[in-house]
């Protein structure tokens, strides 16, 4: 979208004194006039500087609205590793030299000592107005005397100032040489931070709390403009039910455990908890029967519970606290810890038209007392008052206030008007195809996790159709994808291992799915089938819609994995309706071409891409902490198996190795997914028969695989039939754990024996036991496998290479 906002209305006029000078001048001191920096026929050029662009969180939501205020501005940042660029309205970002440093994508924070230098190398000298969005170093951008620099500060660098000691404790840097080095670096950062504050013409703070922090650190006053909250996404609800809600990422400073503990001591009150994160196990352990822990939920569910709740409970100390405002936007009053930003967003019972109340201490007793007080005042809280209070924090209000502030500070913008807000709709790049992705499953298996990476990167031009609901649909929605679930009916009971061909109701369901898929495919340029059943539906739908079909083959199509009738169907569909095949390994490609005699020129191998970010985020978390969360023994040598419970995955081989190796424990992460419950029963029976109960830990399905892997000492892959790829092997490498894998299939394309992993004969429990014993006793071997494995995972199986490969093939097929 190209807004003609600053063309004629924002021409610079001669000015003797800027509004910023009026706002920031010292009484009794005459400020020199600001020299006109532009010719009268030139428009004002605006640069926006942000610390780093790696995710879409609170600071980025502010940036999104600043960009909406100045749609023609140019963007600058230390690094830019965004997958979804829609909130930047598709703008290109100029980055610093850190962008090209090793491992910058995942370890950009480790380059903190270089960030002051890096931000100073970004050249904004050609701009008249510089707006920095800063919670670290963005405000240190170099500007000249004729440039106006306005800095929206989310906070001065917390870990360099008042939170330094907390940061050092959490990073285990309280003593020793590393601690001394860290303290020296933070001292340098503080000096640099104060010096560069002098080059800012005007500060804007996101709350009075941060304004006080700015005053304390920089000795400067700041205008308070609250950050934007999407209150329009929430609607007023006056019918409240008898339950309380808390919703947050489950991390320590959010104090969800305290809220759960308080309600566990009040069984007459019901609490609903929405969210996920590292503290999930700790919080579940404290929950009583009156506490419903729902885990992560899509926005629709969060909005529903937030609208119907009697009150929203909030125990964190936040600079602002967006969820507190969102609750009030639903007409729901808030019970909050009385410190930080909540004091500015909630009206207490001491005021007229209150919207909530506060408690003074972050402990269960204080929360209980606040809930009792809430009952005493409950009739004073009006849903309409809560909604009215929330509306002052809307995105529209933020844009109006921020644009007015900048306009008042820049004489050349005095006649400019705020551009009308138009929601941004990302357009596909020229020549980029529209894609319909099809998957049969609602569970989060390896194929689904791999598709999720594709969707995150291509979401502006990809739609997803699933044949079953479940966590996968939730994950896609969380990633901002357009996703629809079609009813599969009796087809969901057809298994790849064999069985009768679809008849009766199953055949009716097949026809229905083909028609529904074809209808959606007509809006796309190519059909991208992610699983075997999706490929069958896609082949027929492609013919009806006259669209090419690409199958991402993630299986070895052999009698070990498929029944005879299923192999015949694959062979027929390959000839009937497939334009191209993407195989996840050479082993998968070879088995497919041998079965179907498919043209090898239309088969490409693209290794799965797996993000290192979830694993790197846990580098500073002690293993003991992870084990405590998962209720695992602290001192044992833990061997982890990570896959669904299925006979061909070979978990029984690991249990047999445990019998032979009494010094070890086994950790089984996964659950039966496709009618394999009998196998799980057999595993438990084996454990009982061999008295392994204290050494075998069944964790079931887990959302946070990275935390589970980092909690164990070694990762094993025990498939007894050839694996198409072996995602768990790469994940183990990213977790920096030694990996032992079965010598077959796609595994041979990942593991170099005794270099980045160890290979064992499939099904050989004695060989596995011997290898694990060697790993346990050989520190040098473990260290070599970890070091080389991590480099292998990063260099060969990164998400960028994976996504680029798939996107290139889809574009080529669509363009034929």
Automatic annotation (TrEMBL):
<keyword id="KW-0808">Transferase</keyword>
<dbReference type="Pfam" id="PF13439">
    <property type="entry name" value="Glyco_transf_4"/>
</dbReference>
<dbReference type="InterPro" id="IPR001296">
    <property type="entry name" value="Glyco_trans_1"/>
</dbReference>
<feature type="domain" description="Glycosyltransferase subfamily 4-like N-terminal">
    <location>
        <begin position="445"/>
        <end position="611"/>
    </location>
</feature>
<protein>
    <submittedName>
        <fullName>Glycosyltransferase involved in cell wall biosynthesis</fullName>
    </submittedName>
</protein>
<feature type="domain" description="Glycosyl transferase family 1">
    <location>
        <begin position="624"/>
        <end position="791"/>
    </location>
</feature>
<feature type="domain" description="Glycosyl transferase family 1">
    <location>
        <begin position="239"/>
        <end position="374"/>
    </location>
</feature>
<dbReference type="InterPro" id="IPR028098">
    <property type="entry name" value="Glyco_trans_4-like_N"/>
</dbReference>
<feature type="domain" description="Glycosyltransferase subfamily 4-like N-terminal">
    <location>
        <begin position="90"/>
        <end position="232"/>
    </location>
</feature>
<dbReference type="GO" id="GO:0016757">
    <property type="term" value="F:glycosyltransferase activity"/>
</dbReference>
<dbReference type="Pfam" id="PF00534">
    <property type="entry name" value="Glycos_transf_1"/>
</dbReference>
């Amino acid at each position: 979208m190209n807004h003609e906002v600053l063309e004629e209305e924002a021409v610079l006029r001669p000015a003797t004194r800027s509004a910023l000078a009026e706002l920031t001048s010292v009484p009794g001191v005459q400020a020199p006039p600001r020299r006109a920096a532009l010719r009268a026929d030139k428009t004002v050029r605006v640069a926006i500087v942000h610390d780093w662009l790696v995710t879409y969180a609170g600071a980025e939501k502010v940036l999104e609205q600043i960009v909406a205020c100045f749609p023609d501005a140019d963007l600058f940042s230390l690094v830019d590793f965004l997958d979804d660029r829609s909130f930047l309205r598709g703008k290109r970002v100029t980055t610093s030299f850190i962008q090209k440093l090793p491992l910058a994508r995942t370890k950009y924070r480790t380059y903190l000592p270089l960030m002051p230098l890096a931000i100073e190398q970004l050249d904004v000298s050609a701009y008249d107005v510089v707006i920095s969005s800063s919670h670290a170093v963005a405000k240190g951008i170099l500007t000249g005397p004729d440039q106006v620099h306005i800095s929206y500060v989310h906070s001065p660098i917390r870990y360099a100032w008042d939170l330094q000691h907390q940061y050092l404790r959490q990073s285990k840097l309280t003593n020793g040489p590393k601690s001394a080095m860290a303290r020296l670096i933070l001292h340098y950062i503080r000096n640099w931070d104060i010096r560069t504050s002098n080059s800012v013409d005007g500060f804007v703070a996101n709350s009075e709390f941060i304004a006080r922090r700015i005053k304390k650190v920089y000795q400067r006053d700041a205008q308070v403009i609250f950050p934007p909250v999407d209150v329009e996404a929430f609607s007023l609800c006056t019918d409240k039910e008898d339950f309380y809600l808390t919703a947050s990422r489950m991390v320590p400073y959010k104090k969800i455990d305290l809220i759960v503990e308080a309600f566990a001591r009040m069984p007459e009150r019901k609490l609903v908890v929405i969210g996920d994160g590292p503290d999930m196990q700790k919080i579940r352990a404290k929950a009583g029967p009156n506490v419903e822990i729902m885990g992560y939920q899509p926005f629709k569910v969060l909005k529903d519970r937030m609208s119907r709740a009697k009150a929203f409970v909030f125990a964190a100390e936040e600079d602002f606290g967006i969820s507190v405002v969102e609750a009030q936007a639903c007409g729901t009053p808030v019970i909050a810890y009385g410190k930080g930003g909540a004091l500015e967003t909630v009206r207490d019972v001491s005021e007229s038209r209150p919207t909530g109340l506060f408690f003074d201490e972050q402990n269960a007793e204080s929360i209980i007392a606040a809930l009792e007080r809430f009952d005493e005042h409950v009739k004073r809280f009006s849903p309409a008052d809560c909604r009215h209070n929330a509306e002052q924090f809307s995105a529209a209000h933020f844009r109006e206030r921020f644009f007015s502030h900048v306009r008042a500070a820049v004489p050349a913008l005095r006649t400019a008007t705020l551009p009308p807000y138009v929601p941004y709709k990302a357009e596909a790049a020229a020549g980029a195809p529209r894609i319909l992705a099809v998957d049969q499953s609602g569970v989060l298996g390896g194929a689904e996790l791999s598709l999720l990476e594709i969707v995150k990167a291509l979401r502006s031009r990809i739609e997803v159709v699933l044949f079953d609901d479940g966590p996968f649909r939730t994950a896609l929605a969380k990633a901002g994808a357009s996703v629809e679930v079609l009813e599969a009916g009796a087809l969901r009971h057809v298994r790849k291992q064999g069985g009768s061909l679809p008849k009766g109701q199953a055949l009716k369901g097949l026809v229905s799915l083909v028609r529904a898929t074809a209808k959606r495919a007509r809006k796309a340029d190519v059909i991208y089938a992610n699983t075997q059943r999706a490929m069958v539906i896609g082949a027929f739908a492609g013919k009806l819609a006259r669209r090419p079909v690409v199958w991402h083959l993630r299986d070895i199509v052999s009698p070990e994995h498929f029944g005879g009738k299923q192999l015949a169907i694959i062979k027929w569909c390959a000839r009937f309706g497939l334009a191209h095949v993407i195989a996840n390994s050479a082993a998968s490609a070879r088995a497919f071409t041998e079965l179907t005699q498919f043209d090898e020129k239309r088969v490409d191998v693209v290794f799965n891409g797996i993000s290192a970010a979830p694993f790197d985020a846990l580098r500073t978390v002690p293993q003991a902490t992870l084990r405590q969360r998962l209720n695992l023994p602290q001192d044992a040598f833990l061997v982890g198996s990570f896959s669904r419970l299925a006979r061909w995955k070979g978990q029984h081989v690991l249990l047999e190795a445990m019998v032979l190796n009494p010094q070890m424990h086994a950790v089984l992460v996964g659950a039966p997914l496709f009618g394999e419950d009998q196998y799980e029963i057999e595993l438990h029976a084996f454990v009982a028969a061999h008295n392994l109960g204290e050494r075998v830990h069944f964790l079931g399905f887990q959302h946070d695989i990275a935390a589970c892997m980092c909690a164990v000492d070694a990762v094993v892959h025990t498939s007894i039939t050839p694996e198409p790829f072996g995602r768990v092997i790469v994940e183990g490498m990213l977790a920096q754990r030694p990996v032992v894998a079965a010598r077959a299939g796609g595994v041979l394309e990942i593991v170099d024996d005794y270099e980045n992993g160890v290979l064992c004969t499939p099904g050989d429990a004695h060989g596995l036991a011997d290898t694990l014993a060697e790993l346990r006793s050989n520190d040098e071997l473990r260290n070599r496998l970890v070091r080389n494995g991590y480099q292998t995972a990063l260099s060969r199986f990164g998400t960028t290479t994976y996504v680029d490969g798939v996107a290139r093939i889809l574009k080529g097929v669509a363009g034929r």
